[in-house]
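Observation: inputs received (chain + NAP).
Thought: call the complex predictor directly.
Action: predict_structure
Action Input:
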Amino acid sequence: MKILIVGASGFVGGHLIEIARARGHEVIGTQRSAQRNDLVHFDLVEQRLGETFDRGWFQSAVVIACAAIQQIDQCRQDPIASRRLNVEATERLLVDAAELGAQPVFISSSFVFSGTDASYRESAPRRPINAYGEQKAATEQFLEENLPNSLRVRFDKTVGDRPTEKHLFSEWYGWWHKRQPLRCIADQRFAPTLVDDAALGLLLACEQQLVGTYHIANPESFTRAELADLFLRHFGDPVPIICKTQAELGFLDLRPPCSVLDSSKLCAATEMKFTAMRETIERFRAAVEKHPL
Ligand SMILES: NC(=O)c1ccc[n+]([C@@H]2O[C@H](COP(=O)([O-])OP(=O)(O)OC[C@H]3O[C@@H](n4cnc5c(N)ncnc54)[C@H](OP(=O)(O)O)[C@@H]3O)[C@@H](O)[C@H]2O)c1
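Observation:
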């Protein structure tokens, strides 16, 4: 399969390109401000696909929109710039992709939901409670109406097993290493998912030519404090876990109290299996032991 990953320099895009190449696909990855030798510069807001790449390449290809402003508070703080990228430029990219003969793929988020249910299926109504969720919901709706044969996937929080990357576990490890308490959002339940699993689930969906909306998230769910406790059990010499409300943490925008996604539709279609968080943390710890910070 030919795959263009727009935003391959990011956390999810970086793992997607690695796994897609390992699975033998012909992949082009883009970056905007990063400077990797294996990626092509492409600014989604300023540039168009057909003017930047060979138009003929897109026939029967897949274009995955991975580029976004995914920092929740930044979307509230700068709604115009974030909307320009997360909604307007992303919609234009995916329309361009379809017109060039490619399959458009959009990565959305569990934050399209309000977080009052215990777990969400694909058919649940979108009720975002923050600017980031509103932007993701707007793009989803546009795609449903204008590109119904596109693939839309929703992730919950992705985490990694590599200490050298920026994610929840490397942040917690940094605090633990400095003997600082782990600060967690109180009473927030989520489905932390190994980023490689999220990337593999998306690629399996592309390989099987799935269309429509699919959830790709670990079936395990935790409160932040439960996951922090599991994490600390792998490191010994524990530090305190301090739970604070969103107001106490000073967030600009709300986080849904529950962002758990039911991925049974994807698992039935692809036989996708997710990695348990215990195993992810064990791998993380093994990597830290091999290369201490
Ligand atoms: N990470 C999660 O837990 C999570 C959860 C749910 C959904 N998602 C969704 O998954 C997707 C990927 O997230 P991520 O965590 O990988 O984000 P990320 O690490 O912040 O990466 C963002 C990517 O977007 C690129 N980018 C930013 N502005 C751009 C522009 N104007 N033109 C072209 N590229 C631009 C960045 O390129 P440079 O760095 O080169 O500038 C980078 O490759 C996003 O749609 C996000 O909403 C992520």
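Thought: report the result.
Final Answer: The chain has eleven helices and 13 strands. The first strand starts at residue 2 and ends at 6.
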